């Protein structure tokens, strides 16, 4: 994935010096301390029994090229709604990349839809994720997809079958690299 | 960073239990933030204090000015988790139906939509309002058993140091369930 660095200028520069330390502490608090209290992320996927066609999804990627889910018909598509400030989104991002690596040559695509942030913010965050995500990052600057996809909280993930219908849903963070999830995703693509 | 992380782990925790409500609480020695949690009928419910300066840091970095976000950050904000581990079915809730008692008097949550309107009317830029909206605990949601959950911010709308009881309510195919946290304290 080709990515560009344009300078990290989205923050209020007058405030950043005052609050940078507190922000680091907050992220530690949100991601580490609090996660110590939570059970590990599960690997459950809820089957969507009613045949629902995947809603419209068409946004620019990191290279500012338009990506349309309609063009991915015939493939399994994992659609993950997220933001960099969302602790469980951050927790699951590495596992999403490992899912991608395990399935990318098996008729599977992963689309991560960032809600309301800009490319610089996302680019900066991705550099901290291990392994670094190589799947498609799309940008929903106005959060217009949330209602269309009935997303009520971040993260939320849908798995779309090759015929364009929603097959699985997961509300909240997951371990996407768990063998059960990888197996389910691969089987859908066969 | 590593030091803070280590301190955070080692700082876990002073521990106490309300035997009758299966409620526990603990304090993170690194941040001083307190957590109250319970597990009822297969559902985990917890509130963790977000200190006003932590909330300010979060929102200033999302594009708010201190003046714009201060009414929210001083309104007793919690990191809230509700998780359907193994309830006997899909759970559905509307957070505005949750009950709060302060000195035995009912207190209503300020709806997220009202916060969003207040911030939009104050001229907060759109991207910041979007971040605010989606950082909140969902006003309404459904969770399947097996681990559906959310983690989000919840403003109680009380002054610093207030103490309250909160009852989270949900239903499974029309049957109502609840989980209560007692003696919850707003951060100073």
Give a structural overview:
Chain A folds into 2 domains: 8-38; 42-189, 3-Layer(aba) Sandwich (Glutaredoxin), CATH 3.40.30. Chain A is 34% helix and 25% strand. Residues 1-25 and 31-36 of chain A have low confidence and may be disordered. Chain A has 190 residues and is of the alpha+beta class. Chain A has an 8-stranded mixed beta sheet with strand order 1-8-7-4-5-6-2-3, covered by helices on one side. Chain B is of the alpha+beta class and 188 residues long. Chain B has one domain. Chain B has 5 helices and 12 strands. In chain B, helix 2 runs antiparallel to helix 3 and helix 4 (112-121) runs antiparallel to helix 5.
List the helices and strands and how they pair.
The complex is a heterodimer of chains A (190) and B (188).
Chain A: H1 13-37, E1 46-53, E2 58-61, E3 66-68, E4 76-82, H2 87-103, E5 108-115, H3 119-126, E6 136-140, H4 145-148, E7 156-160, E8 165-171, H5 179-189
Parallel strand pairs in A: 4-5, 5-6
Antiparallel strand pairs in A: 1-8, 2-3, 2-6, 4-7, 7-8
Chain B: H1 2-10, E1 14-18, E2 23-27, E3 34-40, E4 43-49, H2 52-60, H3 66-73, E5 77-84, E6 91-94, E7 99-102, E8 105-107, H4 112-121, H5 126-135, E9 140-143, E10 148-155, E11 163-172, E12 175-185
Antiparallel strand pairs in B: 1-2, 2-3, 3-4, 4-5, 5-10, 6-9, 7-8, 7-11, 11-12
Helix pairs in contact in B: 2-3, 4-5
């Amino acid at each position: 994935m080709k990515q560009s660095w344009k300078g990290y200028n989205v923050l209020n520069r007058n405030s950043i010096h005052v609050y940078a330390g507190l922000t680091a502490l907050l992220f530690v608090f949100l991601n580490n301390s609090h996660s110590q209290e939570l059970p590990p992320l599960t690997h459950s996927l809820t089957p969507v029994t009613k045949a629902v066609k995947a809603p419209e999804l068409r946004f620019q990627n990191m290279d500012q090229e338009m990506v349309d889910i309609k063009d991915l018909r015939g493939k399994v598509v994992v659609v993950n709604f997220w933001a960099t400030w969302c602790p469980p989104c951050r927790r699951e991002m590495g596992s999403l990349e490992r899912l991608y690596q395990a399935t990318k040559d098996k008729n599977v695509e992963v689309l991560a839809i960032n809600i309301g942030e800009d490319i610089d913010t996302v680019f900066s965050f991705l550099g901290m994720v291990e392994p670094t995500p190589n799947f498609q990052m799309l940008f929903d600057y106005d959060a217009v997809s949330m209602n269309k996809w009935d997303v009520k909280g971040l993260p939320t993930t849908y798995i779309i079958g090759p015929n364009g219908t929603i097959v699985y849903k997961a509300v909240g963070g997951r371990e996407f690299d768990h063998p059960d999830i990888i197996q389910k995703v691969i089987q859908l693509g066969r | 960073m590593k030091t803070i992380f280590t301190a955070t782990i080692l700082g876990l925790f002073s521990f106490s239990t309300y035997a009758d409500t299966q409620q526990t609480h603990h304090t993170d020695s690194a941040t001083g933030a307190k957590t109250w949690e319970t597990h009822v009928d297969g559902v985990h419910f917890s509130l963790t204090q977000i200190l006003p300066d932590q909330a300010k840091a979060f929102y200033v970095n999302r594009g708010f000015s201190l003046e714009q976000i201060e009414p929210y950050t001083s309104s007793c904000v919690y990191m809230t988790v509700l998780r359907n581990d193994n309830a006997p079915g899909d759970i559905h809730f509307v957070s505005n139906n949750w009950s709060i008692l302060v000195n035995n008097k009912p207190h209503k949550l300020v709806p997220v939509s009202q916060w969003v309107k207040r911030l939009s009317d104050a001229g907060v830029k759109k991207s910041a309002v979007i971040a605010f909206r989606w950082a909140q605990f969902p006003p309404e949601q459904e969770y399947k058993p097996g681990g559906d959950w959310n983690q989000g911010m919840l403003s109680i709308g009380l002054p610093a140091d207030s103490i309250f009881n909160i009852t989270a309510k949900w239903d499974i195919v029309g049957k109502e369930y609840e989980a209560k946290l007692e003696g919850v304290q707003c951060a100073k």
